[in-house]
Amino acid sequence: MESPKRKPGCPLQLVTLNMDAKKCEVNEDALGRLEKRLKEMGAKMVAIVSVMGAFRTGKSFLLDLFLRFLKWEADHPEEAAAARSESQPARGGNEDFPLPAWITTAGANIEGASEDDEGFRFKGGMDACTEGIWVWSEPFLRQLNGQEVAVLLMDTQGAWDSNMTKEQSATVFGLTAVLSSKQIYNINMQIQEDKVENLAYFMRFAQAELNKAASEMEREGKPLSREEIDRPFQSLDFLVRDWRHFRDDWTVEQCMEQMQQHLSRHVNPQKMVENSTAEALHAMFKRLQCFCLPHPGLIIEKDTWTGKVADINRDFIRFMDLYVRDVFTTGLSTKNILGSELSTMSFPHVLRNFVDAFHDAAPAAMSFTQAMTNCTVLLAKEAAMKSFIKKMDEEASRNPRGMKPEEFTSISRTVTQQVEDDYKSMTIFGSDDTRKDTWTEICKNLDNLRQRYEEDNARRLEKALVAFANISLIGLALFLLDRISDWTCDWWSQTCTDLSKLMLLAYVLIFGYVGVQAYLALHDRGRVAAAMAGGELWKEMVRLMGLYGELLQEMELKEVPGWLKEQALNLYNQATGGAASSDSKNKKD
Amino acid sequence: MESPKRKPGCPLQLVTLNMDAKKCEVNEDALGRLEKRLKEMGAKMVAIVSVMGAFRTGKSFLLDLFLRFLKWEADHPEEAAAARSESQPARGGNEDFPLPAWITTAGANIEGASEDDEGFRFKGGMDACTEGIWVWSEPFLRQLNGQEVAVLLMDTQGAWDSNMTKEQSATVFGLTAVLSSKQIYNINMQIQEDKVENLAYFMRFAQAELNKAASEMEREGKPLSREEIDRPFQSLDFLVRDWRHFRDDWTVEQCMEQMQQHLSRHVNPQKMVENSTAEALHAMFKRLQCFCLPHPGLIIEKDTWTGKVADINRDFIRFMDLYVRDVFTTGLSTKNILGSELSTMSFPHVLRNFVDAFHDAAPAAMSFTQAMTNCTVLLAKEAAMKSFIKKMDEEASRNPRGMKPEEFTSISRTVTQQVEDDYKSMTIFGSDDTRKDTWTEICKNLDNLRQRYEEDNARRLEKALVAFANISLIGLALFLLDRISDWTCDWWSQTCTDLSKLMLLAYVLIFGYVGVQAYLALHDRGRVAAAMAGGELWKEMVRLMGLYGELLQEMELKEVPGWLKEQALNLYNQATGGAASSDSKNKKD
Description:
Oligomer: homodimer
CATH topology of the largest domain in chain A: Rossmann fold
CATH superfamily of the largest domain in chain A: P-loop containing nucleotide triphosphate hydrolases
CATH class of the largest domain in chain A: Alpha Beta
Shape of chain A: elongated
């Protein structure tokens, strides 16, 4: 007997794969139909339960069992309430677990085994059935924390089959992560690090998208709390199928205890040797759980199985019964995206937005080996550049006045050789070609750098005389003073004449000194280099004059005597070992 | 009955994990023992069969069956030869597959289930048993292509358990790849893309090490063929356990056909949407196969199973029998590393070398998400730098004479803002912190770049007058000529006086023009800038003078009239539209 509220429903393909454009698309027909049903039901909020995992690991079979449970609870609310408090025969005893009402009421065969639209289609066979993202057309109205919420069941395409591009995988699984209140990661046999990492990869991808959306919101003046950004997802269950390690004589509690241990062994950062991925998962999800289901029996796996409920292993049904109650009763909450609850109104909008966003971001999706190849190549490039820069800087600081061009060429060649030797001992993923191509690219970059260093070196060479700018300025000043005194006082003052002679001696010495230095520095580089260096010396002198001029302007002229006195006092203090300053301090006291 | 040649043997741990140093180490005791046995046996060449895969997927169980087979064949050579031609009841009929002699002769229980050293220890339980790399202490002498070869059986630690660091995983699995003639990748249920990629990751790692070794050899003058470098590994089997898809009524041939299909669906580049990883695998291995084994029965999985042969599913044994013959008879060859066959002498040396090499390379090992994070971060950095450089170069080329300092500041600020906006829309893996840290690092790099552009800009500003160097040179020359004529001929020649006046006019005009330009360019930048620009102008003039001087020296002075004539002819030709040149051509005809 169906309740008048509930329509039978069918699976709707919400997101389809467009193989030509290598992208995913929203199926607007299906979304429209779902939107209409959400409006009719009248619930304001949405909760989404999704199942993801590798292809052909029984995801749709699981969803069909979920459907049986949800339909039965919707149709038989009183019996459902009664069933919750019913006690079951303990595990490990001789009594078989009785088939619960929810699994038998809808018929002797599980829906998905047949070709009609009664359930999510699953087959035991070799071809994966689910493509893109599917959703059950009929939301289920349930009470969560006293609120009436529309619960949606979502099925995603099997991961790591060979018929999706990286872009599409990133979209399908990223979208699932962004939209789900509860995400069930269906895995076979046991939690393994590779599986955890593959999951974390898609979660990271989804998180990157949410980060972008968050920074968009911040720019629009809607700041979010750190918690909302750093912990963007709600609940994740590792659902281990075909679990082999429940002993026949254990109670349910002992089995639960083992599930906890299994989770903590593989996803507890404290217990792991390499814990960055586990830490990241814990940081991203508000709730992380593990549930193990035993093997439902080898007959279920055959192509020829018709979906007969009676064939399913009773221990499997016992744990399934526990799990389904946990998922839809205690473990579920409304969907929350970036700080706001997902409503029946906003759901279609959010879905469309994120499909677009993931498509734009998809080129960043790559395989593990691609990522490693890119990563090692980029790191090698960075290391080569850094090492070249470091070594050339060292050489340059060893020759502050510049190296001769031929010397520069030989040094830069040696450094390049060293960088190449270092490069050869670096680990580069990929074929020999990748290795060679990377080196070619590095060479191109090094050439650019070498050019820059060559220019710097040339400039340094030109500045060979710049260090003499101060002393030349003094010489120039003395020369000018001498000229002035020739005209103004030499003809009447003996002091002036004497000073004049002194100055003459000083500036002749200075110019002689600078001249000799210039000759030493430049005699083997030709006249042009000498003239260029002269030009640079002139520029430096002009710059210094400007500087001193500004300095003088800044100090009021009146302050000059005070400043001079201060300098003299400092000198005196230095000479007497600070006795004067301590004296003045004492006086103040 | 054991053959006198063969000792019982036990598992030896060749490579151990050192958890403190996060590295792997060669167990010298075990290696010494193995080396001694290899010498005693007298075979020259080695073939190594190794099994790798996730933890607790029945690798050791498989190896124990291999051991039974190898021991039996060694002890019963005649019966083994006879068994090869024996026919078996066809699959799909009513007759059960009989237990082959090799599986029953050694006893009713498989060795590894007990605690003694009779086999590779396996347990059905939750704790993984194998750590590091193990090898069976007794090599088996077998005839491969008419050559007597020592066959070693190797067991590797389960991958993707949480008790190995990335460094150790890279070493254990890389080493297995480098050393194996035949590598058996033991996987559960089906080939999946994630499994293929995880495998390819370790193979890439091993390949990178071999590439390094190859380039070392090349440097030492032992060049290798491209084939040896690009296809470094020999044989890889995907061994799918618990395969569900053999129909009960199929023949063995139909099952084999299905295995082929399964392999090609997931590892054939032509059939896959994303084929780079599959292509890489095909490029790396000389031989790539798939073999599927059905489920050996749920009882085998229980902790309580004692290893009773009779419990094992007969269909499993049928395919096991086929597989074991393929592995050790048709599918095996001697180990070849980088062009040379591995001998019993070189084996210990090669093992030690590669353990060291992998340890040195290990820091490059990282998890998928780490790799993606690094990759996106490095790419974002590169993109930001490139975009900044591109935009600043555009701005600079728009202002060839430099921008005013305040203009430069505002432009560089705008460009930085644009780069930041672009950065925000980039996909970065990792938390919000990663995003912010990356931006901080980019900012540091941008600051360095900005400084460089600022210096370039300042230099460009200083060169404001450099464009006038040529015309100033002419002015200077005219001025000098005028002076010379003042002293030499103005007092006796009217022509000289007239020319002098003309030159005076010309150089006054020139200096006036340059002066106005200088004023326009520099009037709002102060006297210092003007003097600096004067210095640069001087330098450029000197440079040009040097250049012209060299040019003149290069041309013999005698050539000058000829050169002038040529230039004049060119001018004439241009004026007459090439008529002269065609005339001269006609004359030649």
